[in-house]
Specification:
The chain is built from 12 helices and 5 strands. The chain has helices at 9-18, 21-31, 34-37, 91-108, 172-183, 189-202, 208-221, 227-236, 242-281, 286-294, 297-305, 313-320; strands spanning 46-48, 61-70, 73-82, 117-124, 156-159. It has 2 domains: 9-176, no CATH class; 243-320, no CATH class.
Length: 321
């Protein structure tokens, strides 16, 4: 039995790939503008364990925040990954909101009177990028006389949608990830299989975790999935790496069983927490019910274990947010 399809495979693959320091460093080295790249201390890159996406937007956006240093001072590189099926003209406004949240969090955790530089990166994988704004100033008409009152920042925009002409560069791991992200919405699934097989065949040393994440991504995001076709493409070229794919098929099945068990635990916790909160606070708020249903196992357990300390909605927010 294969694993149950994920609601958001794009988010899972993006985070699995771009949480790798080696891969994200290679991305920065190949795609950042030279003047910015020259200032960043790549050896001090560190991923932050935070997300700033609003709950209701998590089906359309993913984000990753990296801390680094610029001229000896703390700075951030903020990835926003957009994979909507329609254009959203307000994406840059959302980025401003997320940047503000980063600054507020930094302020609360620092004694410094200054704020860190944030370089916003919009990683686009939607259907059509023509209407996507690249700077906050594009929202305003007749702004020339009022520029001193406006936050006129730009984003670094990278279009890896299916129709994009952006050149894919970097080491083979990065190219493999970017090509899969670019092609995942293609109706020609055999072209996607070819990217998997080319990666396996052309590398002297295969990174099995990256290959597995790619295969899992295809399985989760595509209605059609045929492992045998991938194995056949490899073996036609005289390679025996089809065995690697079969091993990964077994891993997918095992993961499916584990995910099924975990989902059962989570659903039981949701029912328990909802019952306890309704009894304790007499809550019948659909918005709060929606938030509870979106929580992971760890947060649900914290609410359950601290139920006697939760006396108001504000108390609950400390565990939900």
């Amino acid at each position: 039995m294969m694993s149950k399809k994920l609601n958001n495979p794009h988010d899972v693959f993006f985070k699995a790939s771009f949480s790798r320091i080696d891969l994200v460093k290679n991305f920065f080295e190949n795609y950042l503008p030279d003047d910015i790249k020259a200032l960043i201390e790549f050896e001090k890159l560190k991923m932050e364990d935070n997300t700033f996406i609003d709950q209701e937007l998590k089906d359309f956006y993913s984000d990753i925040l990296y801390q680094t240093e610029i001229k000896g001072k703390k700075a951030y590189l903020y990835f926003l990954f957009e994979h909507k099926s329609y254009d959203d003209k307000w994406t840059i406004l959302q980025i401003l909101n997320y940047m503000l949240n980063i600054w507020l969090k930094t302020k609360d955790n620092s004694k410094s009177s200054s704020l860190p530089v944030i370089i916003p990166i919009l990683f686009y994988n939607g259907e059509n990028s023509k209407n996507i704004k690249k700077s906050f100033g594009e929202y305003f008409r007749n702004k020339e006389q009022f520029t001193r009152f406006l936050p006129l920042f730009e984003v670094l925009f990278y279009d890896f949608s299916l129709k994009s002409n952006m050149k894919i560069i970097g080491d083979y791991k990065l190219q493999y990830v970017l090509k899969l992200m670019k092609m995942i919405k293609s109706k020609h699934v055999k072209l996607i299989y070819k990217e998997i097989t080319d990666y396996i065949i052309n590398l002297a040393e295969i990174n099995e975790e990256i290959v597995f994440q790619g295969i899992k991504y295809i399985f989760e995001a595509q209605d059609e999935f045929d492992l045998e076709s991938i194995i056949e493409l490899i073996e036609k070229k005289g390679y025996k790496e089809g065995e690697i794919i079969m091993t990964m098929a077994d891993k997918l099945r095992q993961e499916g069983r584990q995910e099924g068990r975990q989902e059962g635990i989570r659903e039981e916790l949701i029912d328990t927490v909802a019952l306890l909160l309704n009894k304790k606070l007499n809550l019948r708020d659909k918005k709060i019910d929606g938030k509870i249903k979106s929580l992971d196992i760890d947060k649900l357990r914290k609410i359950r274990d601290n139920i006697f300390e939760i006396c108001s909605v504000d108390d609950l927010d400390k565990y939900v947010n």
